[in-house]
């Protein structure tokens, strides 16, 4: 390097130091510039390469910048912020331990987008990756398929290494803000905390981009939590007491309450939002005493704690079944706990869980046992101690003192996704697609059995057959398809979501309901079935609304898609900001005022290209186009 180049560099450093002196005279503890603090050269360059915040008790964080979708405003983005210590070793199966400070405020923790993506697979919580199916073909986790599409450079060449992905040091969150505090102002923007879906056994916050929602003045936080048996195995023992993944979510909410002001957020105006298992999580937080003081309203998209797949009624038996596949002894609880904590790896447990739920589903069962929330009997902390419905009944009987408004809803063809899972796990392996007798006489009873519903009299069977099917279509896969999609969607998603909302209303809580019915090319369907598409009409399937709330950059949008994204993100933002999806000032053209749902007036919002109000959602369960 020549003398002239050195001179330019030294001049540049002097300019930076001079700027720092000026900054230092306007102290702001929230953004990392405090008076009388000395800086070295690395401190300066930390905040040149990306936005920095100083979070008391956490440390200095350096992030990245993005741009919003329509207004092109700055979005300050911080990825992979640990909110808890590693869950490995002594912390396995235990309630999460709050993370110690990341630094002393000098050397910044790298929370940039680039750094997060360098080791993306290891940032996730432990979950299945790729495995061999019954036919010898590789079966891929939908989350892995999504990452492979969005971040192909993060996938190793030897995919045999991907039988499991993630690590036990995974409890992190991402924060996105349109405005950081300045030396004389903290905007105190309303906060949205999002919990991802994935059946409580898959997922992460990859792909949930902020570009749509942060056109509005809100702060977005996205949370990772422990999954599968590592997050939800439930035994009558303090060392594996259950609901660890839910407690992770609670600790993340506490982190938000303690620290979100440093990002321009208001800790007293927090809306929790979730989809699928994340939606069920949201409803769990509405009943858990641990969560109650940490948020003030919620949005639940497609699922509730009342769903059969969202609550483990026999957790000890399921834990033992999974443990048998892992080679652990199950006759003595102490020996079982010791094996699970000390003798096997987290990867061993994930593979055992995979073997368990594949065997269950091959018999026409759900396979969700051992990896969903439970009513705890043990543990130093207890998230819930009885069935979720009992909490709701108590609220209806005694009244709710702290009523938290909520939006609830489901997609038009929720059942196509669930039917697709059943197709690959049960229909094909058991050769029943062309079995006319099975389709005519055994399909409904198999579905009821998978849900744990005994129907020895056949009364439920008869009612469902004549409600959802034309009798002449029975026995023929293609003719039965629409009825199967509707039936499965009601039993797995729609009924439990609607029933939860109704119980909240009976307890005196303001609630809104929607049906998302916009069909277009953008859909997670291809990632939900990355190996082979099932012969099912997807319709407006499970998770499709996410395409219009979060920016993924996976699909090109047409004009109608953009219009739906604008409508959806603004409705959600309105609720987060005003506590009402259509306040008087909402300004959304062509959108009627969205009233709360009541027992007397059962109006809900149909969300598609022509948003409108309809009544009596239950009437649409067998015929989704039958809006009243």
Outline the secondary-structure elements.
Elements: H1 3-24, H2 41-48, E1 52-55, E2 59-62, E3 64-67, E4 74-82, E5 109-110, H3 113-118, H4 120-123, E6 127-128, E7 130-132, E8 138-140, H5 142-150, E9 164-165, E10 172-177, E11 189-195, E12 219-223, H6 228-232, H7 244-259, E13 265-275, H8 277-287, E14 297-301, H9 315-325, H10 333-343, H11 346-362, H12 388-398, E15 406-411, H13 415-427, H14 436-450, H15 459-468, H16 477-506, E16 511-516, H17 525-528, H18 559-578, E17 603-607, E18 612-615
Parallel strand pairs: 2-5, 11-12, 11-13, 13-14, 14-15, 15-16, 16-17
Antiparallel strand pairs: 1-2, 3-4, 4-10, 6-9, 7-8, 10-12, 17-18
Helix pairs in contact: 9-11, 12-16, 13-16
Could you please describe the fold and organization of this structure?
- The structure is a single chain.
- The protein is α/β, with parallel strands linked by helices and 628 residues long.
- It has a domain of 177 residues.
- The protein has 18 helices and 18 strands.
- The chain has an eleven-stranded mixed β-sheet, sandwiched between helices. Strands 1-2-5 form a three-stranded mixed β-sheet, with no helix packed on it. It has a two-stranded antiparallel ribbon with strand order 6-9.
- Helix 9 packs across helix 11.
- The longest helix has 30 residues.
């Amino acid at each position: 390097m020549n003398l002239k180049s050195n001179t330019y560099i030294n001049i540049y450093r002097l300019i930076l130091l001079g700027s720092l002196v000026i900054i230092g005279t306007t102290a702001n503890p929230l953004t990392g510039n405090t008076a009388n603090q000395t800086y070295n050269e690395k401190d300066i360059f930390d905040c040149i390469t990306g936005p920095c915040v100083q979070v008391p008790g956490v440390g200095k964080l350096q992030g990245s910048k993005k741009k919003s979708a329509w207004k092109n405003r700055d979005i300050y983005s911080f990825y992979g912020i640990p909110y808890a210590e590693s869950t490995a070793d002594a912390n396995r199966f235990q309630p999460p331990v709050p993370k110690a400070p990341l630094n002393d405020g000098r050397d910044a923790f790298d929370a940039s987008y680039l750094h997060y993506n360098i080791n993306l697979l290891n940032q996730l919580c432990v979950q299945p990756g790729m495995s061999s199916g019954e036919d010898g073909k590789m079966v891929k986790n939908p989350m892995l398929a999504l990452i492979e599409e969005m971040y192909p450079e993060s996938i190793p060449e030897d995919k045999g290494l991907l039988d499991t992905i993630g690590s036990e040091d995974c409890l992190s969150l991402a924060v996105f803000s349109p405005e950081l505090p300045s030396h004389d102002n903290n905007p105190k923007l309303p906060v949205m905390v999002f919990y991802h879906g994935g059946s409580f056994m898959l997922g992460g916050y990859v792909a949930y981009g902020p570009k749509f929602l942060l056109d509005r003045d809100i702060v977005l936080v996205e949370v990772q939590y422990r999954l599968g048996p590592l997050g939800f195995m439930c035994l009558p023992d303090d060392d594996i007491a259950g609901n660890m993944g839910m407690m992770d979510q609670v600790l993340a909410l506490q982190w938000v309450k303690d620290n979100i002001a440093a990002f321009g957020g208001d800790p007293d105006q927090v809306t929790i939002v979730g989809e699928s298992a994340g939606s069920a999580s949201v409803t769990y937080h509405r009943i858990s005493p641990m969560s109650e003081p940490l948020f003030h309203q919620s949005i639940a998209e497609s699922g509730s704690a009342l769903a059969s797949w969202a609550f483990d009624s026999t957790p000890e038996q399921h834990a033992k079944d999974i443990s048998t596949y892992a080679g652990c002894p199950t006759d003595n609880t102490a020996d079982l706990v010791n094996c699970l904590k000390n003798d096997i790896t987290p990867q061993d447990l994930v593979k055992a869980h995979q073997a368990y739920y594949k065997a269950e589903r091959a018999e026409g069962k759900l396979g969700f046992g051992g990896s969903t929330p439970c009513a705890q009997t043990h543990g130093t902390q207890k998230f819930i101690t009885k069935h979720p419905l009992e909490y709701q009944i108590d609220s209806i009987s005694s009244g709710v003192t702290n009523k938290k408004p909520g939006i609830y809803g489901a997609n038009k063809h929720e059942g196509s996704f669930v039917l697709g899972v059943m197709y690959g796990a049960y229909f094909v392996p058991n050769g029943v697609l062309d079995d006319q007798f099975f389709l005519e006489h055994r399909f409904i009873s198999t579905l009821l059995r998978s849900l744990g519903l005994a129907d020895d009299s056949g009364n439920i069977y008869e009612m469902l057959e004549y409600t959802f099917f034309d009798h002449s279509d029975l026995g023929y896969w293609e003719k039965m398809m629409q009825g199967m999609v509707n039936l499965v969607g009601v039993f797995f998603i729609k009924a439990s979501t609607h029933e939860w909302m109704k119980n909240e209303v009976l307890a005196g809580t303001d609630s809104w309901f929607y049906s998302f019915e916009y069909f277009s090319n953008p859909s997670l369907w291809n990632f939900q079935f990355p190996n082979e598409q099932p012969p099912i009409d997807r319709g407006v399937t499970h998770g499709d609304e996410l395409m219009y709330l979060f920016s993924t950059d996976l699909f090109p949008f047409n004009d109608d898609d953009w219009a739906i994204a604008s409508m959806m993100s603004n409705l959600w933002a309105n609720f987060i900001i005003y506590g009402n999806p259509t306040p008087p000032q909402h300004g959304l053209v062509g959108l009627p005022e969205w009233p709360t749902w009541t027992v007397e007036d059962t109006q809900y919002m149909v969300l598609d290209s022509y948003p409108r109000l309809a009544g009596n959602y239950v009437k649409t369960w067998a015929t989704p186009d039958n809006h009243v």
